[in-house]
Amino acid sequence: MRWPTLFVSHGSPMLAVEPGLTGPALADWSAAQGRKPKGVLVVSPHWMGEGLALSTRDRQVAWHDFGGFPPELYTLQYGAPGSPALASRVQALLAGSDIAAEQDPRRPLDHGAWVPLRYLYPEADVPVVQLSLDMGRDAAGQLALGRALAPLRDEDILIIGSGSLTHNLRHVRMPQNAPALPYVPAFQDWYADKLAARDVPALLDWQAQAPGASQAHPHDDHLMPLYVALGAGGPAATRLTDEISYGALAMDAYVFGE
Question: pTM of the full predicted structure?
Answer without folding.
Answer: 0.97
